[in-house]
Write a structure and sequence with these properties.
It is a single chain. The protein is an all-alpha fold. The chain is built from 21 helices and no strands.
Length: about 450
């Protein structure tokens, strides 16, 4: 299908609304970096509490992912997004109003439930709505909103740095504004046509598909989806994921999800202030670095969106894994020397990650599973992602405290070299293919 054969504005609009969940993902992910110096003083945290408080988001994400797959497959993608938006809205106020460490950790856990749900449902929904020729770019909108959320949050954190010991309350409370917009926007989204066809609601699906690409597009898509669903369970269960047709995709999806986190880049996002403190940066300069990181992240995500449907998924993933493996060796060396040059190599690592592993992993996870199990299979992969994230952010302060801030980056470099081998072996190119063609190719792998 050519670009001029579908309603680009309509597809972009609904993709952006669904991707508002990504903005809030970015907010909850980034806000902790600016707030940690204040939280450590306010709640008198040691390195174990600091790690657990940061990782509590991941624990909520795991629950959110597990809920999201079932909710998305049972009640629809639209309702799942609406529930996630409501959770975001409530959790922002709860974190800002926390009067004890336990209340804050519980509130951050609840925020994680919302993050986990949107990290499954937003890319899943966009992948099912978007035509094949632009699906990579549209799903990458979710990553664009994530990095926009990170950048805006980092800027607000920097502006709020001198507003007193309660600055962290404003940092968390301001998340209620985008949460409210997402809540309103999700109410007006159409349901995913693929979900409707699986529920034998073909008239509703036809209406939405006609808006996207016209009558012929609607007819072709309905026939294709019905063929892929023939003889398959309308309500899949977790045993389905172990079948010969599905298991290869599940293994690939879980492997990519774990690698995206254990590659280590998110410690730079979450512990920016701690890392740059070790090479002599002041608190003001530490928070300034979070802004630079946010800008680099946004610019290189735009490059990824521009190239993901041209260069393809696999080349970008290989560039990311190999590039990080090399950059981490330099970063670790200069951190070990206490040199400010480490900042440059860490920024370069952010750029490489932002144009490769960050968006393309989400694109692949949203593409590689068969229609009949896409909801629960995506949720399993993203649960694995958040488990890996939890391990990463819990372990970093402890390793850094006892073995030096540089040591984890040597470990992450080794993991990235292994990631190159995994990508070569397991990842199939998916650009330009319909979701049905992709799942057929993966199942034969």
């Amino acid at each position: 299908m050519n670009h001029d054969q579908f309603n680009q504005r309509y597809v972009a609009l609904i993709s952006f609304i669904a991707a508002m969940g990504g903005y809030l993902f970015g907010f909850d992910f980034a806000v902790i970096a600016g707030a940690l110096p204040f939280l450590k003083d306010y709640f008198r945290m040691n390195e174990y509490v600091e790690g657990f408080t940061t990782a509590s988001l991941a624990l909520g994400c795991i629950l959110g992912c597990m809920l999201a797959g079932k909710l998305a497959d049972t009640y629809g993608r639209k309702r799942a997004l609406f529930i996630a938006a409501t959770i975001f809205f409530v959790s922002c106020f709860a974190m800002a109003a926390s009067f004890s460490l336990n209340m804050f950790i519980i509130s951050r856990f609840v925020a994680g439930v919302g993050v986990g749900m949107t990290s499954v449902v937003s890319p899943l929904y966009i992948a099912e709505i978007a035509p094949a020729s632009v699906r990579g770019r549209m799903v990458a909108i979710n990553q664009l909103t994530i990095v926009t959320g990170i950048l805006v949050t980092n800027i607000l954190n920097y502006l709020l740095r001198n507003s007193g010991e309660d600055a962290w309350r404003w940092m968390f409370g301001l998340g209620a504004l985008p949460s409210g917009l997402f809540l309103i926007g999700s109410f007006f989204l159409p349901e995913s046509p693929r979900y409707l066809i699986a529920r034998r609601k073909n008239e509703e699906a036809t209406s939405i598909l006609k808006k996207i690409g016209g009558p012929e597009y609607a007819f072709t898509n309905i026939a294709s989806v019905e063929k892929s669903l023939a003889g398959q369970l309308a309500k899949p269960n977790y045993k389905t994921l172990l079948s010969k047709a599905v298991l290869p995709a599940v293994i690939t999806g879980i492997g990519l999800a774990i690698f995206q986190q254990l590659c280590g880049i998110n410690v730079v996002f979450n512990f920016t202030t701690s890392i740059f403190q070790t090479i002599g940066f002041s608190q003001d300069d530490q928070l300034k670095q979070t802004v630079f990181i946010g800008i680099v992240n946004l610019v290189f995500t735009l490059i990824a969106m521009w190239k993901v449907d041209n260069w393809g998924r696999k080349p970008l993933m290989l560039i990311g894994a190999a590039g990080l493996a090399i950059l981490y060796l330099f970063s670790a060396y200069f951190l070990q020397q206490g040199s400010a040059l480490a900042a440059g190599f860490l920024l370069a690592a952010i750029g490489v990650y932002a144009m490769s592993l960050a968006p393309v992993t989400w694109v692949l996870i949203s593409e590689i599973f068969p229609n009949s199990v896409r909801g629960i299979a995506t949720s399993i992969a993203v649960v694995a992602l958040w488990l890996a994230y939890g391990v990463l952010v819990f372990s970093f302060p402890i390793i850094a405290k006892h073995m030096g801030t540089f040591t984890p980056f040597y470990i992450y470099s080794g993991i990235c070299f292994l990631g190159v081998l995994f990508i070569i072996r397991r990842v199939k190119e998916t650009k330009g293919k319909t979701l049905e063609q992709v799942s057929d190719a993966i199942s034969m792998h």
